[in-house]
């Protein structure tokens, strides 16, 4: 047993991570037991993580990211990354309107010669290219 109580902020973070894992898993793999089996963990472990009662290891986060085709940024911080999480973002927004989707490509790019993490938005067919 720990000598000191865990700060509430860490408990809140743990629950938020569990919720995002659950949301992504439900979209890709509705059967929690099957997902746990494929990840090599016990179903009760995955259940506790999704409920926020247990923190996932960094190795499990990496495996979940790969298996669920979602970025670790989404699982850990709730940040959706450009094209990496594009399909997931649209599906999550439809199911969870409380989730705020932030478009990184909306920020002004001050130096066009500097590579960016996000691609330019696609051009509309009626736009002229100069």
TrEMBL record:
Region (Disordered) location: 100-130
Residues in HTH cro/C1-type domain copies: 32-75
Alphabetical list of Gene3D superfamilies matching this protein: lambda repressor-like DNA-binding domains
Pfam families on file: HTH_3
Domain of life: Bacteria
InterPro entries with a match to the protein in the record: Cro/C1-type_HTH, Lambda_DNA-bd_dom_sf
Coiled-coil boundaries: none
UniProt source species: Gluconobacter kondonii
Protein name: HTH cro/C1-type domain-containing protein
Composition bias type Basic and acidic residues, residue spans: 120-130
């Amino acid at each position: 047993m720990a000598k000191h109580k865990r700060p509430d902020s860490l408990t809140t973070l743990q629950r938020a991570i569990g919720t995002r894992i659950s949301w992504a898993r439900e979209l890709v793999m509705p059967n929690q037991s099957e997902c746990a089996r494929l990840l090599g963990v016990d179903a009760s472990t995955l259940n506790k993580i999704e409920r926020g009662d247990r923190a996932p290891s960094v190795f499990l986060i990496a495996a979940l990211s790969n298996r669920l085709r979602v970025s670790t940024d989404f699982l850990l911080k709730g940040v959706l990354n450009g094209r990496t999480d594009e399909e997931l973002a649209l599906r999550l927004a439809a199911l969870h309107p409380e989730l705020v989707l932030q478009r990184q490509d909306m920020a002004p790019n001050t130096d066009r010669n500097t590579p960016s993490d996000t691609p330019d938005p696609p051009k509309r067919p009626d736009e002229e290219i100069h």
